[in-house]
Model the fold of this input.
Amino acid sequence: MLWAGRMRLGTFGILLMLVHAPAACEFGPFPYRATGIVCRMTKPAALLLNQETAQVIQAAFRNAKFPNITGERSLRLLGKVAYELTNIQVNDLSIEQSEVELKENDAIHIAIKNVTAFFKGTLTYGYAGAWFLQLFHSVDFEIESSIDLQINIKLMCQKDQVAADASDCYLTFHKLMLHLQGDKEPGWLKQLFTDFISFTLKLVLKSEVCNEINFLAQVLANFVHDLAANFVRDKDISVDISLASVPLMKANYLESHHKGLVLYKNYSDVFSDSVFSPSLLTESRMLYFWLSEHILNSLASAAFLDKRLVLTIRGQKLQALFEMEDTEAQRKAVQMIFQGTSYNDSVAKVWSLAHPQISLQPGGTVVKSLVAVEVSILPPGEEPLMVLYMEKEITVTIQAAYVEKKLILHPLDSRIEFKVFKCTADPSGNDPSIRNFLQTMISVVGIPEVISRIEPALTSLMNSKGLNLFEIRNPEIITRKGYIIVQLDFSFPNHLLLDFLEKIL
Done:
């Protein structure tokens, strides 16, 4: 049967996991040196998530496949009485209380109290030690039970990702009553079956419910891993979130350390000088993410290789850039550059010439990039004519925030250094007015315009991964020398629970 196969495979898989886990995840003597991403979930977050544990436990009870229970009993007057309980399934279920505790260097302890469960099925029995048709009887039954459930979930590394082992599972029965349907069955028969079925039934319920809980714990661990892996993947660019060390369990938080290597087509990242230490994170917020400066640099390099750092500006946007102020110098520069051509018949292209360099500092994220700008006019019926080309090294400091489910990038200061400057209206380069105007224009409106394009693009990308479905409270993005910390509180992500339950039901 399928349920039996899954039960045997699940048990066998757990044994393999326990035996091979150390060999499957081998870490060097200094695992933090290879850590690019850290996720810390504190106890308040665990308490919040535990509020919905009941739904997962209910799914475990309802998904459990209970086998038929058969047996026989010798009686003095009747001879042998053989019986079989079939079609056992959960009819009703309620959970009164659930508590969670983080046991340092051990496990997540979940205590679920006063689980009231009603099971139903069919009892078939016969006398004289054989299943003679003339002595064959069937009656519907209901089992009323009151159970306490204790689960110890250990986090480990399996196949380079977080795995959950919930095989340490105990059921304590406070009540187990068998109710036979109808008034014709004799009272001694009910008492008989209640007495000698009870022990076997307890074993079966414990085995199947605990197996299902362990199975769901592993499915949930894989579900969260797949969710995270999808969040850090966009087309050909992805981030390797394989574990860099075994998950850390403390009394006040859980912590996982990931490699955070950027992958792009045949390009593979290398990283071995992380500055991470657990002391860099606190325990005052519910959720923390720590990211190395190296990751941001690698992502910028991958975006450059994927030709994503290209921007085209035309029409009203182009007009807003060049007409930021109405001065004589501005009017002269516009006339010299565009030669009377309208903005609708002109186009500006901006692109990065090399991998941007990113440096994380206490004052913000410092981005240094060699950028090219090309302005062309499109005379009707003629070939496009390039009227301006320049290369410049731009260094800008940015502070980031996440407000009302939008990424906000605020430029603080910038430095611009021209490397190449060619303008058809000033081929000798002796007229400084155009260059001076362009330098002011780039600093005042050019850089903010580029950033204004990046903000919605990154917000849209994150929303496509479902970030906007989370109720994030008071997020903070904090930059330090060499790393960045994102810390936040959150409300329970009901959409994730629904997605998970739909996946398993």
